[in-house]
Write a structure and sequence with these properties.
By secondary structure, the protein is α+β, with helices and mostly antiparallel strands. The chain is about 35% helix and about 20% strand. The radius of gyration is 26 Å and the shape is globular.
Length: about 220
C-alpha cells in the first residue's frame, strides 16, 4: 500500500480545499441515536474519500457510559450508508445498531485508514463480507465502495430527491479560483503556441514564394 492510498480517506477538517456541498447538512456535532432510541455519541468528523469526493464514514465519539473501563474518548467509524438523517431533530439515526453492540465496534484511533482496517469495520456491518486476498486500495476500490454501506445517497438521499439535486463534497471557492486560473492560463498558453505555429508557417510560406519569384 502506497502513501497515496493511506491519504485517500481522511477527516474533512484536514482538507482545506473541501467542504460539504450546499444543501447537504454538516452533521458534525449531531447526536447519533441507536435502534433502541438511546444516544450513543456525537459525530466528530466526516471521513472523506478524496478521490471520489464522497463521505465514506462518520467518526462517532462515543458517550463515556457506553465505554467499559478507563477507555474514555473512544471513537468508532460508521459507514455513511448505514446511517440516516433526522433533520427535524438534528440527529443521525443508526436503525440497525443497538446501543449494547456499539462497544464491540473496532476503535478508530485517528491513524491512517488502511484497507485492512476498513475491512475490519465493514465486516461488523456487513455479515456477508469476506475480505479479498489483496489489501491494496487500487483494483478493489470499485467493488469495495460499491456496496450500499458506502452509498452516501442512502444518507442524504431523501432530501436530495426532494430538492432535485445531487449532493456531494465540493471544492472551496479559493481552490476553484486557483483551478480556473490554471485552466485559463493553460488555454492562453496553448492559444499562443497555436498562433506562433501559424506565424511560422505563414513566414515560411512567404519566404518560399519570394524564392520562387526570384527564380522566375
Amino acid at each position: 500500500m502506497t502513501n497515496d492510498d493511506l491519504d485517500r480517506v481522511v477527516p474533512l477538517d484536514q482538507l482545506d480545499d473541501f467542504k460539504v456541498a450546499d444543501g447537504d447538512p454538516d452533521v458534525r456535532g449531531w447526536d447519533v441515536v441507536a435502534s433502541d432510541g438511546r444516544k450513543i455519541g456525537e459525530v466528530d468528523q466526516l471521513l472523506v474519500d478524496t478521490a471520489a469526493m464522497k463521505v465514506r464514514y462518520l467518526d462517532v465519539d462515543l458517550d463515556d457510559d457506553l465505554v467499559a473501563g478507563d477507555a474514555s474518548d473512544r471513537h468508532v467509524l460508521i459507514p455513511i450508508g448505514y446511517a440516516r438523517l433526522d433533520e427535524n431533530d438534528d440527529r443521525v439515526m443508526v436503525d440497525q445498531l443497538a446501543s449494547a453492540d456499539v462497544a464491540g465496534l473496532p476503535e478508530y484511533t485517528h491513524g491512517p485508514i488502511t484497507r485492512d482496517f476498513e475491512s475490519t469495520v465493514r465486516s461488523r456491518f456487513d455479515t456477508g463480507y469476506t475480505a479479498a486476498a489483496t489489501t491494496t486500495a487500487t483494483d478493489t476500490d470499485r467493488d469495495f465502495y460499491g456496496h450500499d454501506l458506502y452509498d452516501d445517497n442512502r444518507f442524504y438521499g431523501a432530501r436530495r430527491n426532494l430538492e432535485g439535486g445531487e449532493g456531494r463534497l465540493t471544492l472551496s471557492q479559493e481552490e476553484l479560483v486557483v483551478r480556473n486560473r490554471e485552466v485559463q492560463e493553460t488555454g492562453t498558453m496553448e492559444a499562443d503556441l497555436r498562433r506562433e505555429r501559424v506565424d511560422v508557417d505563414r513566414e515560411g510560406d512567404v519566404r518560399l514564394r519570394d524564392e520562387r519569384n526570384d527564380r522566375l
